[in-house]
Structures are given as C-alpha cells and as structure tokens.
Amino acid sequence: MFFTTSVVLLVLLVPFCSGNFHTRRISSETALLKLVCSRQPIVALVGDDVILPCRLDPVVSADSMTVVWTRPGLDPKYIHVHQDGQLLNRSQNLSYYFRTRVFVDELTYGNVSVSIFKARVSDEGQYWCSIPSIQKEASVQLIVGSVSAPVVEVTSSNRGKMVLQCESAGWFTVTIEQTPTQIHSETWS
Ligand SMILES: *[C@@H]1O[C@H](CO)[C@@H](O)[C@H](O)[C@H]1NC(C)=O
Ligand SMILES: *[C@@H]1O[C@H](CO)[C@@H](O)[C@H](O)[C@H]1NC(C)=O
Ligand SMILES: *[C@@H]1O[C@H](CO)[C@@H](O)[C@H](O)[C@H]1NC(C)=O
C-alpha cells in the first residue's frame, strides 16, 4: 500500500522536477557560462601522458553534457567524444584509439579535460573542446618534443671564445659562449 502510494507520488512529481523549471535554470546559466582551456601551450615529451585542461566557469556539472574533443585538419577530426557517460568511439580517429580519456568523476565539477596517453610527435597541434548543448568551444595547444641524451661539444671559436654546444637529437639546441678567462676562474675557484 505504502509502496504503491510512493510510486504514484513519484510519477506525479517527475514532470515538475525535470520539466520547465529545470530547463529555464540551465539556459540562464548558459549565458554566463564559459568554457576555459589552458591558454599556455601544454608541453610534453614523446611517451608522456598529457592532460589538456579545460573546465566550465563558473562550475557547473558536465555530467549530462556531450563533450567533443577534436583536432581540426585531421580526418576524422574526433579525438574523444564523451556522450551518455562513455566514449562514442565510432567517430574517433584511429590514431587516438585507446589513447584518450575524460575524467568521468571530474565532469561533475565542470572539469572536461581530456588526457592523451603516450604522446607522439604527430599529436602536436591545436585541440578544440566543444560542448554543443551550451554552444561553447575553446582550444588548447599541445607541443610534443622528442629529447634524447644531450651531447655536449666543446669547440673553440676564432674570436677567442669557448663555445659549448649542447645538442640533442630532438627539438632544441642551446649554445653557450664563454670567454676562456671566465672558464679559468670557475675551474680554479
Ligand atoms: C568501440 O568500442 C567497442 C567496445 O568497447 C569495440 O567493440 C569496438 O570495436 C569499438 N569500435 C571502434 C570503431 O573503435
Ligand atoms: C588520424 O590522425 C592522423 C594524425 O594523427 C592522421 O594521419 C590520420 O589520417 C587520421 N585518420 C585515421 C583514420 O587514422
Ligand atoms: C581535472 O581533472 C584532472 C584529472 O584528475 C586534474 O589533473 C586537473 O587538475 C583537473 N582540473 C581542474 C580545473 O580541476
């Protein structure tokens, strides 16, 4: 008897809870809502697991939202599409297969960051996060460098300066020039 009554009550209440009131509240929030991604490029090395940080501001739960991560220029451009609580994988670019995740527990706090595992040089580029239901999108840049053990070469330049060249097979070369006297004083101090 009690059971039947509560079911009837629930059925009567549901339309009020999920109906007009709810949608009106969301749409006024949507106007002020921002999707904020890291403005700083995310720098990683080959093989790293990286997080591309994006969040809703002010904090609103993204639990029920479809979160779409893309990299324009790729075909297919989809990196990770999170819908109905899971990865919608039929649209995903194969080179990201099994290499991405969103933080399902964090969606409640508006954290829609995506993670890419074992970064590759080819992952470098501009990533877009979009949330179609609130018509927001933002982008974040990923830079992937490859660095092997650095090689330090000491060569003398014809201007009487000592040239230390630190070189890696990867993405940067740093050259330090020092006069011999400076090096001398460091050696004997
Ligand atoms: C999508 O995921 C399902 C289950 O995890 C898997 O069986 C299927 O092969 C996947 N499809 C693609 C295109 O990755
Ligand atoms: C996926 O992305 C890569 C670049 O990471 C691209 O070369 C490739 O053509 C895309 N498509 C498929 C089906 O892998
Ligand atoms: C989002 O979640 C990831 C993974 O837990 C965490 O590293 C990151 O700091 C979170 N971002 C924010 C804004 O809370």
Automatic annotation (TrEMBL):
Q: Where in the cell is it found?
A: Membrane
What the entry lists under PROSITE patterns is as follows: IG_LIKE
According to UniProt, the name of this protein is: Butyrophilin subfamily 3 member A2-like
Task: Please tell me where this protein is predominantly located.
Answer: membrane
Q: Keywords in UniProt for this one?
A: Disulfide bond, Glycoprotein, Immunoglobulin domain, Membrane, Signal
For this UniProt entry, the molecular function terms from Gene Ontology, in alphabetical order, are:
signaling receptor binding
An example GO biological process term is: T cell receptor signaling pathway
Give the signal peptide range. Answer: 1-19
Keyword Disulfide bond included in the entry's annotation: yes
Q: Give an example GO cellular component term for this record.
A: external side of plasma membrane
Q: Name one Pfam family in it.
A: V-set
Question: Per the UniProt entry, what species is this protein from, by scientific name?
Answer: Stegastes partitus
**InterPro entries named among the record's database cross-references:** Ig-like_dom, Ig-like_dom_sf, Ig-like_fold, Ig_sub, Ig_V-set, IgSF_BTN/MOG
The keyword Signal is annotated on this UniProt entry: yes
**Ig-like domain sequence ranges:** 47-141
